[in-house]
Amino acid sequence: MAPIKFNELLFDHIVEFTKDHTIFAAAKNGDGHLRLFLINEISGHVYTRNGRADSWEELFGTDISTVIGCIAAARNRHIPVYRINGTNGERPQ
Length: 93
Known about the structure:
This protein has 93 residues and is α+β, with helices and mostly antiparallel strands.
């Protein structure tokens, strides 16, 4: 997977699954490629989707706080946030 350029991420929508406390967020990087993130609010685990490997890859260290900070900043810009009273069927493997 190519390195994530966090300073180029522009989040365009967030989906919150209230029953299992997960957040799905979509962002585009500087060259317009889509980057997907899955956050478990209870465990604190953050994953990014690797489409080429068809898998979710866990982020570690400062990458976690950077993604969470980017999502908080996106909320402040009033991007669409969809709240679903259900669970997220996608689970990282």
